[in-house]
Write a structure and sequence with these properties.
Layout lengths: L1 H5 L4 H20 L11 H13 L4 H20 L26 H9 L8 H14 L3 H5 L6 E2 L4 E5 L5 E5 L2 H13 L25 H15 L7 H14 L4 H8 L4 H4 L1 H17 L13
Antiparallel strand pairs: 1-2, 2-3
Helix pairs in contact: 2-4, 5-9, 6-8, 6-10, 10-13
Length: about 300
């Protein structure tokens, strides 16, 4: 209830937190004698994390466990069930900061061109890809998009993201036109299922489209377009942000459009931009290529 009501976390996030805390519960019950939640000390938590690491948990999984445990024990502290927080001095594992995969404009155009517009719901598929790229949406935000949130007259759409946080995102004319085409030529002919009347993107039965359906569409189009990168719907979000940063967009504006709570999350795209520039120099600059000589002009 704390996670849902006070922290406004989504059902999926709540399930993940409960699942992670249940791992500590299982570990505590396996000790001799079994530990109660209020008996757990810093040393016990350190031993728990060490056990998960030896069992093969990656650093990212360990960091997620710690996040859930910190929330759990801070709540116990607030409820005065414990006198001190045992997670206070618990250190998180160091995480390598991976640069996200992104698509070039040519690759995105190639995937859109791979859509067979003679097939049923082709306008929907094209509109979804355009919306993912043009607005930097998460796949859950795309699937949950409502017609009443489309403010095309002002050039914005309303988006509800993680933790039910709302934001307004600019939408370009190409994406707006694709969504209009889909609404006018395909969606009007689909059956209307209960609770999906206001949902923008529907499946052939008139129900809300699943995230897996969007994932499969992206995979299929990538193969058809000859894109060899390992991608998902989220890759379009990375591409949206990367292309904005490359074009000189203000990082705060990109943060606002992506709905990032912290600017440090958005800063990954500045690192990616520098890596992109470096790879271009290594590829094209005469002095950066092995075995190649060149004279200064």
């Amino acid at each position: 209830m704390h996670l849902k009501l006070e922290r406004s976390l989504s059902d999926r996030t709540v399930e993940a937190y409960l699942r992670d805390v249940s791992k500590l519960k299982a570990y505590a019950e396996s000790q001799k004698p079994p530990l109660k939640p209020t008996d757990v000390r810093l040393e016990d938590l350190q031993a728990f994390i060490t056990t998960t690491a030896k069992a093969g948990s990656k650093a990212t999984s360990q960091a997620r466990y710690l996040s859930a445990l910190r929330v759990f024990y801070r709540n116990l502290l607030r409820e005065k069930s414990i006198g001190h927080d045992p997670t206070e001095l618990l250190e998180s594992p160091r995480l390598a900061r991976k640069l996200p995969v992104f698509l070039t404009l040519e690759e995105i155009n190639g995937m859109i061109a791979a859509i067979d517009m003679s097939q049923p719901l082709a306008h929907r598929d094209k509109a979804m890809i355009e919306a993912l790229y043009s607005c930097g949406l998460r796949v859950s935000e795309l699937c949950g998009l409502r017609r009443s949130w489309l403010h095309f007259g002002e050039g914005f759409i309303r988006v509800v993201g993680k933790g039910d946080k709302e934001r307004l995102v600019p939408i370009g004319p190409m994406a707006m036109e694709c969504i209009r085409q889909y609404l006018e030529h395909e969606r009007v002919h689909l059956p209307h299922r209960p609770k999906a009347e206001d949902i923008v993107f529907l499946n052939a039965r008139g129900g809300q489209l699943s995230r897996m359906a969007v994932f499969n569409l992206v995979k299929r189009l990538a193969v058809a377009a000859g894109v060899r990168k390992t991608i998902s719907p989220h890759t379009f979000r990375h591409s949206f942000a990367t292309h904005l940063v490359e074009g000189g967009a203000d990082l705060r504006a990109v943060q606002e459009m992506l709905g990032h709570a912290s600017i440090t999350t958005t800063e990954i795209y500045t690192h990616l931009d520098r890596e992109y520039l470096r790879s271009n120099i290594l590829q094209f600059h005469p002095r950066a290529q092995k075995g190649r000589t060149g004279s200064a002009a």
